[in-house]
Write a structure and sequence with these properties.
This protein is of the alpha/beta class and 249 residues long. It has one domain (2-248): NAD(P)-binding Rossmann-like Domain (Rossmann fold). The protein has 8 helices and 7 strands; from the N terminus they run βαβαβαβαβαβααβα. It has helices at 17-28, 41-52, 68-81, 105-129, 152-171, 198-203, 216-227, 245-248; strands spanning 8-11, 32-37, 58-62, 87-90, 134-141, 177-184, 238-241. The chain has a 7-stranded parallel sheet with strand order 3-2-1-4-5-6-7, with helices on both faces. Helix 2 links the parallel strand 2 and strand 3 (58-62). The longest helix is centred in the middle third of the chain and has 25 residues, at 105-129. The protein is globular.
Amino acid sequence: MNYFKNKTIIVTGGSRGIGKTICLEFAKLGANIIFNYVRNHEEAKNTKQEITQYNVDCDYIKCNLNEPSQINNFFNTIKSKYKSVDFLVNNAASGVNKKSYELEIKHWDWTYNINAKAPWLLSVESSELMKNGGSIVNISSLGSNKVLPNYFLVGTSKASLESITRYLAVELADKNIKVNTISAGIVETDALKSFPNESEMLSAKEKNPAGRSISTNDIANLVIFLCSDKSDMIRGQTIVLDGGYSLIN
């Protein structure tokens, strides 16, 4: 996979969970890594140390994706060091896990700012740095089209993200930039702890035709494929990665 050597990828939410695995897997292939974090500086620092073991450059930048001004500063920092980037993974997500009638307007604004507005802004900014084409991969979930308990805000914001993917795929095509989405099944990360029905979600793997839950490595492997030259004709698609779970549930 020499295709990725010395190329540069931006991963949002790259200090832990799915984002961290994506960063590490691209670093193993020789790509330079840029990721943002919000609160835990020590965690981000440790992630950078793991990444640089693969002899690649790595920058971690504090950036609250809820604030457009911070996104602007994020890219100003990137532009000061990198002449171009090749890939963007909109992985970071947030949300308030309650029923629709339990939510407040501020919950809507927070969730949509991070899950939909930020990926749009990040994609536009990144596209200006993709001098030789590139790939943008958005991370969604099955809740974008399947009604899940306490998932109203995240589910509808992810549906918006999938629509954003389709529009960007067409509008950025003349820059030779591919845009796709991965709709992932349940992944056992710390994010699950925020769900009131965590135990029920974890038990879902027993019903999965694949016999297990989706791993962060499963997602990273698909991101790698969608960023490679082998996926050139896949554009504006939402690819379900769930081991077959959504086929029977």
